Amino acid sequence: MSRPRRFGTLALALLLAACGSSPEQGSAPSVSEEDRAYGAEQHPKLLAEFGGAYAGRQSAYVAALGERIATAAGLPGRCTFTLVNSDVVNAFAVPGCFIYVTRGLVAVVRTEAELASVLGHEVGHILGSHAQRQQRRSVWRTLGVLAVSLSGSEAMTRLAGQAAQYFTLRYSRTQEYEADDLGLHYLQQAGYDPYAAAGMLGALQRQERFMAASGGRDAARGIPEWALSHPLTEHRVERALTAARETGLADDALPERKQAYLDAVDGMLYGDDPQQGFVLGRRFAHPVMRIAFEAPPGFALTNSPTAVQLSGPAGLRGEFGGGPMPSGGVEAYAEQLLRQIVGDGPAQVEAAERIPLDGISAVALRASLAGRNGPVPLSIAVYDDGAGGAFHFVIIASPSDPQTAQIADLFRSFTRLSAAEAATLRPRVIETVVAKPGDTATTLSRRVADPHPQALFLLLNDLPANTALTPGTRIKTVRYGAPR
Ligand SMILES: [Zn+2]
């Protein structure tokens, strides 16, 4: 999350728009005005939930590359491609041809053609109308919070994370194959080596191996990786290779534009954005706001510009955010927040008590919301930031598994960040380096600023350890520094 702002700024309207339109067989591909309007409405909500648009020059690169693919797909000027400021490795598509790719994914591919292949795959999901066929998940159905959701509260709608559905979509194997086939076709039409499609899938497999090698660094992250929404199997790589051969082209007969990709990615932010804070396993630490907290085992964190989203066992949902402190202090803030969440809906405050924290004024409030199937537990915690503002948690839990002890642990874990820890949370960037005589993957990986330097080096470059590098070969490393 970024600097504290008023809660409730992010209005997530109910997604009632009908957006189904199957492409007619044999007709020219199209994106309807209705779908474009729907996507345009979702666009700011998705960005607010998933890290925002990346501000660096790489955004224009992704947009231009996307337009090249859209044109190849017969959709010139009909798609919007956005580089998302998140280090999670993912890409997704929203009806109306709004395509998103994270900077985490941009970092792990090796060439422009591989990146183009990801964008082509997502455009394939659009023209296959795959998203419309998915079951929309609803946390409200899980918890039965019908009465509350009808109150139309912005904060409640945000907690339900409705815009998140496209990020967490699970495509079927058939849909994946169809998107792969369409994507490969667009790749070739755009003048890129169609063999890059298999290379892209290989990059995503390396990412899976890296996650395993780095000890499941992101196990507690709420945002799923690409592999969860686009199931990755060995067979998909084989299929992509077979399809590339069937074009009749030799491998590398068309360009992959590796140098153009390396020029573009050089200086791009890598890992967490210090302005939004760091998700370190279940711990959240913000070096600018100088605060931290730790979620209990089984909880997952998703960082975004407006808030940190929490999810936990039995459909538990919550968020960590902030806002200006009213004159009545933390108690007044908690009541104001409760009113904002339930709107006109009924809610009963069951307990309000001080949270014993060293040097921080804090209050916890437990309330009960009227759900369709009975009361639903809501917990709020508010902390004085000592500078005219406050931080807060809002948690909605399942009545059958309210996680009371875990929520109390979470609320007590809030702490001020030490200067020493804040100093370790610095921005990192991708730096491209040209190998000199004598350089090997092992020696160059020592330059990588990461707890797992060699594993990260292999992930970014797809090079076997200990191999000598041909002098002049350009590779990616990661170092501390400001993005450019
Ligand atoms: Zn897919």
Strand order of the largest sheet: 8-9-10-14-13-12-11
* Net shape: globular
Number of self-contained structural domains: 3
What is the CA–CA distance across the termini?
21 Å
Cα-atom radius of gyration: 23 Å
Oligomer: single chain
Share of helix, binned: 25-40%
By secondary-structure content and strand pairing, the structural class works out as alpha+beta
Q: Give the names of the bound compounds.
A: zinc ion
Biggest beta sheet attributes: 7 strands, antiparallel
Spans of at least 5 consecutive residues with low confidence = 4-25, 133-152
Kindly state the number of beta strands. 17
Count the DSSP helices: 17
Q: Quote the beta fraction.
A: 15-25%
Mean pLDDT: 84
What's the arrangement of secondary structure elements?
Elements: H1 33-49, H2 58-72, E1 80-84, E2 91-94, E3 98-102, H3 103-108, H4 112-127, H5 139-143, H6 146-150, H7 154-160, H8 173-189, H9 196-213, H10 226-229, H11 234-246, H12 258-265, E4 269-270, E5 278-280, E6 283-286, E7 291-294, E8 300-303, E9 308-311, E10 317-324, H13 329-342, E11 347-354, E12 362-371, E13 374-384, E14 389-396, H14 404-412, E15 415-416, H15 419-424, E16 428-434, H16 441-445, H17 453-461, E17 474-480
Parallel strand pairs: 1-3
Antiparallel strand pairs: 2-3, 4-16, 5-6, 6-7, 7-15, 8-9, 9-10, 10-14, 11-12, 12-13, 13-14, 16-17
